[in-house]
Write a structure and sequence with these properties.
mainly alpha; 0% strand; globular
Amino acid sequence: MAKFKLIPKLLCRFGGGNFMNMLKLYFLFTASVLLSACSALHLADTKTRNVARVDYLANIAPIETACKGVGAVAATSTAVSANTQQIDRIEIVADPESATSLVARGHALSLTTDDTAGTDALFKLALSRADINTPASRVHWSHGWAMFNQKQYPCALAHFAAAYQANPDDARWAHYTYAVTYWQLNDRLNAIRFYEEAVSQEPSCWRDVASGIRCTGRWRNHQRRAWSELFAAWKAHRIARGNQTAEIHSSN
């Protein structure tokens, strides 16, 4: 209360006893207080919106479990025999390839063959050579998409989680990537939940068809098809939820 009693005294002092000057000072003071309050509320709202409402590491099997068998090959296959020789050659290469080059090769292999063993070997070698240009988070992220391309979705999700864990401060990709991977795993609940997070964090990319097409412009056909199916399901979910809310309000 003592602080508020000081306000009239200060207004009289700095206003020189002139009513109009005092009134101007009062409005300036009130405006500055309101602006400070609005700024504080905006900052709090921004922080709240930027806090993820989903857990990117919960209930995801570790790579050792999720990717078990991905590198396994059948000894009876002639093609696999050639792949095994290729993997051995990669592992004992005399002139070490950079992680960047190995990641590029692994990604290319995942798009052209079903050779999960060869793809996995390239990325494992890339991880052992991760550097400032291609850090571990980037290797795991690329490895995840490679496994996605080869329909090894549990393994893909495990690598995405490893990428997130390695660099959670630079993981704006995580929400939509988890969403489409969960969709391919037929986990509709988590797929829509993570897509909701994507829309919340990046509405300019994921809230409508046109934005989604723009933001998936460099995706492969099978990746975009997964997003398209997920988007349709998310949209239907939102409409159904809106109808339920309307029914509750009308009944009240």
